[in-house]
Design goal:
This protein is of the alpha+beta class and 235 residues long. Helices cover 34% and strands 12% of the residues. The two termini are 34 Å apart.
């Protein structure tokens, strides 16, 4: 997996735009481009286009600036990438081996937690009862809490069914950890077979779910007063 590393943490200073790169901007303000670069350089988390626009002079067109900046960094050691609609600098994938010694202590998850994470990723929005139904066994107490503690799973809403159970989904940190732009970029059936996770001829009727980070028609956003509800005590 490709580990995200902020430029500042590596002691790398961004190179100034060359004259040749500046020539790519006939209709853009180079100063605006420098501002976007500085904001992304200093940000600890991915930044959305709206957040960037609030920090730029009125009238600055953020998306063309981001596209130009991504092109400038395309062949450098750090690339500008999109994560769930937001933007951040990330170490180039082919250079990840250089930074392995910088990786924090490995997170160790139980097999049940890994299976649960996969179910949440592919079936979101999903309730605890649905997770248990898919796995075929009861979910041990603390499994979802462990995934929420590492920051890969979150409570995203409540289902419009009796009991109003909470629904779970993956986080931006999950996308960053596994190098995904959004949940629709999760490996499909062909990729899973190629990686050895599925038989060459999978069971008849097996389908890969279509996860979404958007609220489903039968799902309501979690109300503010319910934000502190314990996932393990919610039905």
């Amino acid at each position: 997996m490709n580990r995200v590393v902020r430029l500042a943490e590596l002691g790398v200073e961004a190179e100034p735009l060359s004259d040749q790169e500046a020539l790519h901007l006939p209709d853009m303000n180079v100063e605006h481009l420098r501002m976007v670069e500085a904001l992304l350089f200093a940000a600890a988390e991915p930044l959305g286009e709206e957040a960037l626009a609030r920090s730029l002079p009125q009238g600055a067109e953020v998306r063309p600036l981001l596209d130009e900046l991504r092109q400038i960094y395309a062949r450098r050691g750090v690339n500008l990438v999109q994560v769930n609609g937001k933007w951040q600098f990330r170490t180039a994938a082919d250079l990840a081996f250089l930074l392995r010694k910088e990786q924090p202590e490995q997170r160790r998850l139980s097999r049940a937690a890994i299976e649960t994470l996969a179910i949440v990723a592919y079936h979101q929005p999903v309730t605890r009862a649905e997770i248990e139904d898919i796995r075929g066994v009861a979910l041990s107490k603390g499994t979802i809490d462990a995934l929420m503690e590492v920051g890969w799973v979150k409570i995203r809403g409540r289902k419009r069914t009796p009991g109003r159970p909470v629904t779970y989904g993956t986080t931006d940190a999950f996308l960053v950890q596994f190098g995904l732009e959004n949940v629709s970029h999760l490996p499909g059936m062909d990729e899973l077979k190629a990686a050895g996770f599925l038989d060459a001829v999978p069971p008849a009727g097996l389908e890969i779910p279509n996860p979404s980070d958007q609220l489903s028609p039968d799902e309501d956003p979690l109300e503010d007063e319910l934000d502190e509800v314990s996932p393990e005590t919610s039905l």
